[in-house]
Amino acid sequence: MPACRRLAALLLTGTMVFGGLDAEAQEAKSDQIDVQILSTTDLHMNVMDYDYYADKPDPGVGLVRVASLIRKARAEKPNTLLVDAGDLIQGTPMGDYVARVQGLGPGKFQPIIAALNALGYDAAVMGNHEFNFGLDYAVAAEKEAKYPVLAGNVNRVEDGQPLFPAGVILDRDFTDGAGAKHTVRVGVVGVLTPQIVLWDKDKLEGKVTTSDIVEVAAKTARDLKAQGADVVVAVIHSGLSAAPHQKMAENAGVDVAAIPEVDAVVTGHAHRVFPAADYANLPDADIPHGLIHGKPVVMAGFFGDHLGVIDLILSADPKAHGGKGGWTVAAGHAETRPVLTRVNGKATPLVEPDAAVAAIAKDAHQATLDYVRQPVGKSTGRIETYFSFIADQPALDIVSDAQRQYVAKALAGGPYANLPILSAAAPFKAGGQPGADYFTDVAAGQISLRNVADLYLYPNIVAAVKVTGAQVRDWLEMGARVFNRIDPAKKEPQMLVNRAVPSFNFDVIDGVTWRVDVTQPPRFGGDGKLAPGDNHRIVDLRYNGQPVKDEDEFIVVTNNYRANGGGNFPGLDGKNVVYSGTETIQEIIADYLRAAGTLMPATNHSWGFVPVTAPVTVLYDTNAKAAALLTQYPNLSDVGPGDPGLELFRVDLSPTALAGQVLGK
């Protein structure tokens, strides 16, 4: 880190002096201004503090909660800016209701955009999920904003121009340490993950193209400085990665922080918090002060669980702007503020809901409740995802069966009608980084639309691809990255699941059977490229009891995200799509349940583990409620409490424990 930036960061902690003055004295100087940049990201239509899937309040989420933190922060300091880093309009049943049922137009409005307007946001960047409901809807929703919306690296095909501007200069009257007002010109850069053209290819192809985040951000930052910006803040819907820079990278926050003309960076997309100790591996990162490459960087979690705060000290600079004078950043640091705390598993809200935001969303909230409470069927048993990484689950088989039936009808009588149809599904809610309560759990009895949305979170469109047996095997190998390598020689306990791999990338392909050898390293890296060594975790892959050959051909039903390259699965790049539907998978599941009437949840037993002959201790953590289901898994034993809200189970992978494991229906 440059010495001057490190000195500036230390100044803000009071551990060093700057120019002979401590931090408190520095902030009181008349030629300096303390500016606070407040931020949210990945709100995902969580306007209210409510879990629509469980149909109960949740004080740990919602713009309605983080809005109280915003008002509190504004009361602390006179000079603030408020920005959002994207993924606003999709992510809860309210988002589905507004997009699919209510719609936009005269007399209607997007409630989360209206809430941002009421809170006086200064700028926002679009996120990748803004496009899940189609380009027209995304543009219509964003045009309701009374603040600048940015999307500089998304260009319209028709004219090559940005869908929304790449940057904007905000002239703000800020008060210095002595109480005098000054006009400060704040430049804001807005860019997002370029992969939208892959993930929503069916909605965006031929309409928009994307460019590299860093290239566009760098050019825009230079332009804003040339146009007179005193300070440039990059607001990017992109995460943070320690990987070396690659063009068109998904997570480019570290490289954006290295752009000379950028003074601070607001990030998002990754659903994580920065600064935090788990980012200590980032290059040139100062975690205590929230700096990367000497610049303050923040990521405010997801769903409204945190407020991001960047503090900048601006100093008057008579040499700025070619001698015309202006302001430059002398110091800065970043932090996040949570809406609640958890101690020994007990949640304590730190703020009350904001009444003004709640009032804006009141009607949409009630309409959403009415919508998701509509019954679609019944279930004779419980449907949950607590043991999704231990064995095949009815929760996934319901999705797979619904998808397969739908596509089988669509392909009947066509050129692919005689090919075997497989179906892929993943556990979207299976714990991990989102928290101990992030699981699907539907009680026996009535199934409502909210339960369908719980089973399948995203508004993905059904798709089908034609693949070979070799590609099916690689598909499963990529999904098996979710497992840590179990070292047979290791005596210490080993965790079964690598929680850094999102559960939505653990595709279970129904219609074939296979076993996973967790003593082998993963065959692929997260980028979909072969890892060093000829590693094979997937063994004994069979269709109808017969070994699958590399040249065998199959149809695999999946979603538009996966079929077009989402998750970097090898062999899936949109080129082998043979069917693209128009209905969402949520709608297909709902219709499937209506037709079934009463469902008897059952598993197809698609996969299992290869026995480990060495005496290893393998542990699996899941929600503590899972202990009540232990009798269904004879190779598991309860070890006791794990992290708050979680229970630890020992997984017996010995030949004796797995001897009775039979795969297939």
From TrEMBL:
One of its GO terms (cellular component) is outer membrane-bounded periplasmic space. The keyword Phosphoprotein does not apply. Its cofactor is a divalent metal cation. Its main location: other. Keywords: Hydrolase, Metal-binding, Multifunctional enzyme, Nucleotide-binding, Signal. Residues 37-272 form the Calcineurin-like phosphoesterase domain. It is found in: Cell envelope. CDD domains: MPP_CpdB_N (cd07410). GO terms for molecular function: 2',3'-cyclic-nucleotide 2'-phosphodiesterase activity; 3'-nucleotidase activity; metal ion binding; nucleotide binding. It comes from the Bacteria. It catalyses: a ribonucleoside 3'-phosphate + H2O = a ribonucleoside + phosphate; a nucleoside 2',3'-cyclic phosphate + H2O = a nucleoside 3'-phosphate + H(+). This is 2',3'-cyclic-nucleotide 2'-phosphodiesterase. SUPFAM superfamilies: 5'-nucleotidase (syn. UDP-sugar hydrolase), C-terminal domain (SSF55816), Metallo-dependent phosphatases (SSF56300). PROSITE patterns: 5_NUCLEOTIDASE_2. Residues 390-572 form the 5'-Nucleotidase C-terminal domain. InterPro entries: 5'-Nucleotdase_C, 5'-Nucleotdase_C_sf, 5'-Nucleotdase_CS, 5_nucleotidase/apyrase, Calcineurin-like_PHP, CpdB_N, Metallo-depent_PP-like. GO terms for biological process: nucleotide catabolic process. Signal peptide: none annotated. It holds the Pfam family 5_nucleotid_C. Belongs to the 5'-nucleotidase family. The keyword Nucleotide-binding applies.
